[in-house]
């Protein structure tokens, strides 16, 4: 009985959550949909960070800059090249994949702390570049669209409802694809790299090649989130992508759980709604500083009390409800299991 519950309870909860998510746009106002759409777009950026940090063990403190590049790329392709929205999204994803490849080539070999330094430099330089090339980026005013970023194709849905449903579908598709990817051979290879890169290499894992591929995919996902985020807001400005934004995405990843796809949505909700709540409660300039202080406190509490984040807490709750719930796949390789692990990874 517990085995059936162990398999079907998480699926039932996920199905209920998806049904509720699908009917939400018909129950709430367009203003609320605007906020939730922001959460979904930011969640794509957090998911890209989870893939990079949680599953491949690489550090990036510049994911916010790649997210911003995606937004600017999409808006500039529409403004200057007159591409339609979907082509602009694909173009932004491709550009961010190229950016990820350029950063990833030296970054994979640098690894660890040095990779973190490289990416934080990119995050710091990105807003400066936007101001320096203001003829193309619009400078402080940024780039705006004359109409809705993603207009509804039918009179039955408002633009806000259409935007929400598109983002909801894209988010579910991305989570499904990544979940399948990390639960198979690629995931086992990444787990081996995280546990012991030397041992992983001895088992035939091409660590540098795999980490580079993950870096490129992660950058493309960040660009996808950035493009949709720009469409939700209807504009891109340099103030949206300072260095602190990359740190904020990192906070969302830790708070949600950097190995939890659903936790990424929770983490994104925290960083989107928390400043709004503070602005409403403390209507002054100090609300922004208070929100950053709370981010720091929440991050510290999560690291100490819940290192697996909200996703980890939910997994523990399931384990308590259904005893015997299977834990995460083993990552360490002992001599007696090395041969079988080599076969699994290869």
From TrEMBL:
Name of the protein described by the UniProt record: Branched-chain amino acid transport system permease protein
Cited Pfam families: BPD_transp_2 (PF02653)
Membrane-spanning intervals of the chain: 7-27, 33-52, 59-78, 84-105, 112-131, 160-178, 212-234, 240-257, 264-283, 289-315
Keyword terms: Cell membrane, Membrane, Transmembrane, Transmembrane helix
GO molecular function: branched-chain amino acid transmembrane transporter activity
Annotated localization: Cell membrane
Annotated PANTHER family: HIGH-AFFINITY BRANCHED-CHAIN AMINO ACID TRANSPORT SYSTEM PERMEASE, HIGH-AFFINITY BRANCHED-CHAIN AMINO ACID TRANSPORT SYSTEM PERMEASE PROTEIN LIVM
A Gene Ontology cellular-component term: plasma membrane
Topology in membrane: Multi-pass membrane protein
Source taxon at top rank: Bacteria
Origin species: Microbacterium invictum
